[in-house]
From TrEMBL:
Signal peptide: none
Protein name, as recorded: GGDEF domain-containing protein
Lineage: Bacteria, Pseudomonadati, Pseudomonadota, Alphaproteobacteria, Hyphomicrobiales
Domain of life from the UniProt record: Bacteria
Covered range of the whole protein: 430 to 712 of 712
Length: 283
């Protein structure tokens, strides 16, 4: 059917459009149910210190164990959570779960948690982080807050105030997916980052392309001058690891070391990567 939008323009209702809206509504209902039914899980991926080649931090990565569709990655459902406002309670849950897990890890292992722009704009975030740290007993210095550049586009003032308040709690701030967004350089100047994570798209050709090597070297040099640590994401080969080490990255994350694993697989993973650390810490 054709339908007038009131200004004499005719819009056509396509059956596929209805279908897509229907699917979205179903996903939204599924998501709400997933919250109450406890279908979300936090997985962890190690971030390695390049020099010592030991685990420095575990990054919390959200998973949805869907009853019919299996284990789902966040890119499939986080955008909708952001749209319908579910990301705030879901983000609170991730933080609490992750801090509680991390409080049982060896003291020298940090925890990185991703926050969406919607969360950073939410006025209750700083209080939420403070009370979660208090309740779980996690040392704030072990917490690293990862945000992407999009956070900073919308309302710079709010974002800046929030980031400073988070730092005042003792936590650190990392810029995620560096190089894929907008005016990265001015953001590095304005916002109080402790760490920059170079996006995986720059890592994949490391060691093979002069351009990738030059970009990583330049970013590492820049971060060094700004007293920020620099991490390469998506490291899959020894060749890439060698190259990023040569170009001056401090930390590395990727399938070369491990993918994200469930919390109960961490003791074995830490043993494999670091030696028998965990057993010592548990005593
Ligand atoms: P991210 O924070 O940049 O996380 C890195 C992503 O790259 C993860 O995907 C990780 O599994 C993947 N990855 C790690 N190493 C490699 C590698 O060597 N090769 C390849 N091809 N991929 C690698 P994942 O877990 O699917 O997460 C995707 C994105 O979803 C994250 O990107 C993050 O932006 C977002 N996300 C994850 N958990 C949360 C959360 O709790 N809250 C929010 N707001 N966002 C989250
Ligand atoms: Mg991240
Ligand atoms: Mg990233
Ligand atoms: Mg990403």
């Amino acid at each position: 059917h054709a339908k007038s939008d009131g200004r004499g323009v005719w819009r056509y209702f396509k059956p596929e459009m209805n279908q897509r809206m229907q699917m979205r509504r179903e996903l939204e209902l599924d998501l709400r149910r997933a919250m109450t039914d406890g279908q979300f899980e936090v997985f962890y991926q190690p971030i390695m210190d390049v020099e010592s080649r030991r685990v420095k931090t575990f990054e919390a990565l959200l998973r949805w164990r869907h009853p019919e569709r299996g284990l789902l990655a966040p890119d499939l459902f986080i955008p909708l959570c952001e749209e319908v406002g579910l990301i705030v309670p879901l983000g609170d849950w991730v933080l609490r779960r992750a801090c509680a897990d991390a409080a049982r890890w060896p003291e020298d292992i940090g925890l990185a948690v991703n926050f969406s722009p919607v969360q950073i704009q939410s006025r209750h975030l700083v209080g939420q982080i403070a009370s979660t740290l208090r309740d779980t007993g996690l040392n704030p210095r072990r917490l690293e807050v990862e945000i992407t550049e999009n956070v900073l586009i919308k309302d710079k003032e709010t974002a800046l105030a929030t980031l400073y308040a988070i730092k005042a709690l003792g936590a650190r701030i990392a810029m995620d997916d560096f190089g894929t967004g907008y005016s990265s350089l001015s953001y590095l100047q304005i916002f109080p980052f402790d760490k920059v994570k170079i996006d995986r798209s720059f890592t994949c050709e490391l060691g093979q392309s002069r351009k990738s090597n030059a970009i990583i070297r330049a970013v590492a040099g820049l971060c060094d001058g700004l007293d920020m640590a620099v991490v390469a994401e998506g490291v899959e080969t020894e060749g890439q690891f060698e190259a990023l080490r040569r170009e001056g990255c401090n930390q590395a994350q990727g399938y070369l070391f491990s993918c994200a694993v469930a919390a109960d697989a961490l003791p074995a993973l830490l043993d494999a990567l670091n030696g028998a650390e965990w057993a010592q810490a548990a005593e």
